[in-house]
Amino acid sequence: MFMLHAVSASIWLLLWYVIYSTKRKECIPTIRRWPRLLPQFLDRLSYNGHAARLVKHGYEKHKNQPFRLLKMDMDLIVIPLQYALELRAVTSDKLDPLTASFDDNAGKVTRILLGSELHTRAIQQRLTPRLPQALPVLLDELNHAFGQVLPASNDGSNAWVSVNPYELVLNLATRAAARLFVGDPICRNEHFLETTASFSRNTFDTIFTSRTFGNLFTYYLARWISTAKKAHGQLQYIQNLLGSEVQRRKLNSEEKHDDFLQWCTELAVTEDEARPEALAHRTLGILSMAVVHTTAMASTHILFDMISDNILKESLQKEQQDVLKHGWTEITQQTMLDMKQLDSLMRESQRVNPVGEFTFRRIVRERITLSDGFQLQPGQQIAIPAKCINTDSTILPDAHLFQPFRWLKQSSTAPTSFSNSSALNLHFGFGRYACPGRFIASYMIKAIMSRILLEYDFKLDSEFPSRRPPNIVHGDKILPNRNAVVLFRRLEKTVPVCSGNDRSDRT
């Protein structure tokens, strides 16, 4: 009899827990594609194909409250902007950005490093304060890279040359950034450069596979996924190469090095951070996935924006000629600040074509009660719907229009530069942990675009119905079209340019 009562009590406790847990979840509305009577697994399985519509529907219906999305590996709690404003200064021990990034980028499969902010310290304490000194180094390497990457016509004439724009900028950015990240002579090692660029492609393709089939499934099948196998082999090569370089530098302490690898070596605090293999791994991850890939995507979007609007392209060419009267080699930090039109286009292009639907991804580590009484629970993953917010006409007038010179006017109260992180420019993150590398990314994009505008004419190799190659959408991620081909031709003389900023807006 006692056993019967014990079993009955256990069943009632289990039922109570299930009902209570369900009610707790239901207090956050769940955005579903399938009817509630069907299992949630169908929503998780179909998330990647319908993410943009689900996010938009959730935002329009629950703009000022949290809502839940059912992803393949997790529930994502999408929080409104006013919550992010409250949480912007919360420290990483309470809202964890590293684990959120690890999960979002299939860290168990791609082997992204977890558990250290060493790279952030290196960028904030060494790279950003050194930007005036780093810029000439970056430009010198970029000047060398253009000669290596952008081919001339086969017959020696000034004919059009076919180029994949994403691959072009990926290779330019890899070569330029490598000088700042690993220094001489490795930054000119062709195998290292190709491996770094290829690692970026393979890693992101593996991430897309993981988002489609789930982290657990992808983790166990990684040995049969070609991009994952290639990325793992490339990581091993870089760990051996850069790990040996770390050890060599330690044995030759009289040598002076001023690059990211050295800064991380000097700033490492824990034994795990200081391991040569970990330093090499971290350097590759930040160089390949954060700096190079982001620069390549943003620059490709900007190229497509210019190609689809000749008036815009001509106005930007005139600005470059006015700012750099004697050519690209006189570019400086001040002349980059003078590129107002280009900076505005960069910001507007990122607003309309961000890297994804979300930013401010965090794993909740401690219960947090917000001003309206809503509680964030430990274990929840949260994010803000940055694309929806930054394309909301109730927040930004005419947000549905692409206006490349929207951000020309600066103010002391609301800076509008590309690298400024704010509620109107959320895609670099928000608050205490906004992307620390956004300043060097801004310089790199401007340097590449400036050289192209001054010295090349460019056009699409084929027509698209919208004039601009359509973006590739994969789940809640947004990529520039990687199949479009652009024709480049070196300019023989100054091109005719328009004199004003008047132009039509694009919807």
TrEMBL record:
Residues that hold heme according to the record: C435
Gene3D superfamilies assigned to the protein according to its UniProt record, in alphabetical order: Cytochrome P450
Pathway listed: Secondary metabolite biosynthesis
Cofactor(s) it depends on: heme
Signal sequence, start to end: 1-21
Keywords on record: Glycoprotein, Heme, Iron, Metal-binding, Monooxygenase, Oxidoreductase, Signal
Single GO molecular function: heme binding
Family: Belongs to the cytochrome P450 family.
Protein's UniProt name: P450 monooxygenase
Organism: Epichloe bromicola
